[in-house]
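Page 42, continued from yesterday. The earlier attempt failed because a stray header line got pasted into the input along with the sequence. Redoing it now with the clean sequence only.
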Amino acid sequence: MDPPKIFVERTLCILKPDAVHKADEIEDIILRSGFTILQKRRVQLTPEQASDFYVEHYGKLFFPSLVAYMSSGPIIAMVLAKEKAISYWRELIGPTNTIKARQTHPDCLRSIYGTDDQRNGMHGSDSFQSAEREIRFFFPDTITEPIGMGQAARDYLAKAVNPTLLKGLTQLSKQKPLDPVVWLADWLLENNPNKPKVKDQGIV
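This time it went through. Structure tokens are written below.
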């Protein structure tokens, strides 16, 4: 029986306006909890952008105050990666309502860094679909598919990476350039098997 495939997930973390001043402290906790921070940016959302991000809550009573709060100051958006990142990050930040979190999960991040029932310090994606949409909202060029680990990663490397890399290293040993790292980087860019080949049809 084959061992189960393990995948590294990505999730979106937002440090909300009331928690940004503790960013270094919170990032340290994130890293010590086994997450990798893949991408990070500090932004100030406009009310329109905040409305777009929280569009699923449109029409709810708390929506106007949520939008006002999320556009009231800078936030920090981060892409976190770890096996089962989505559920682990939700567990680490705790219940949505800070006041309830202090009663039921006193060690969670919202209990420590949140302010009240709405200003709860941070956000975490609640599903793979949400994570994909939310990461693309802040990082449009990112890839959100899970990353394979273990045998799945080895299989991928053997099939998709190693053959091209072997050719490049073979050429490198023949050419013996002065700066082998730059030469290999240029060679890999030029010989990327996924790069579309454009044939010059000449001037018509």
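Notes: The radius of gyration is 22 Å.
Reminder to self: strip header lines before submitting.
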